[in-house]
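Deliverable D2.4 — example input (structure tokens):
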């Protein structure tokens, strides 16, 4: 099975009213699933550098009747680049992003900055074993080391489909 956003998001323990930042939201599969879980009293900040993807995501959320998705044109590879305030989110989602990030240290520190203490981050990325993935991947051990040195503790690791790994971190 390919990576399933609903199954992977279940690892985050989302609840009604939570605030979630989807960093590198892209086409929005994770943002849409998160918006369903946090309900009308919650909020999903879908952050991406590509305006066209954000517009498509905005349209998809509207079509699904989800009015709790806020698209944010921002750059999660820079401290403060997401334009979210410090401690704004209960949860962060990082899906299929690390393999293309030029500044991974700043990316992880920005995720930490926007998360509340005790908040959780879900990291899903391409497995080294996948024949379908990009030429250059960001291996799970490297992702774990990156987030741990940035102030996170690994809570769990899991197989996020046939081609992806999944990690859940808690912000310390």
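Example output (designed residues):
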């Amino acid at each position: 099975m390919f990576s399933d956003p609903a199954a992977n998001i279940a690892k985050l323990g989302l609840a009604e009213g939570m605030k979630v930042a989807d960093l590198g939201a892209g086409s929005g599969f994770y943002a849409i699933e998160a918006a369903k879980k946090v309900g009308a009293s919650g909020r999903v900040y879908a952050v991406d550098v590509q305006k066209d993807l954000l517009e498509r995501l905005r349209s998809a959320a509207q079509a699904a009747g989800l009015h709790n998705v806020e698209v944010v044109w921002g750059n999660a590879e820079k401290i403060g680049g997401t334009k979210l305030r410090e401690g704004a989110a209960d949860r962060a989602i990082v899906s299929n992003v690390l393999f293309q990030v030029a500044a991974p240290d700043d990316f992880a520190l920005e995720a930490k900055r926007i998360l509340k203490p005790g908040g959780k981050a879900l990291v899903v990325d391409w497995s080294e074993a996948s024949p379908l993935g990009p030429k250059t991947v960001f291996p799970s051990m490297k992702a774990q080391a990156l987030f741990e040195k940035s102030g996170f503790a690994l809570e769990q690791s899991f197989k996020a489909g046939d081609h992806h790994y999944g990690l859940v971190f808690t912000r310390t």
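Residues 5-171 form a domain with the Rossmann fold fold (CATH 3.40.50.150).
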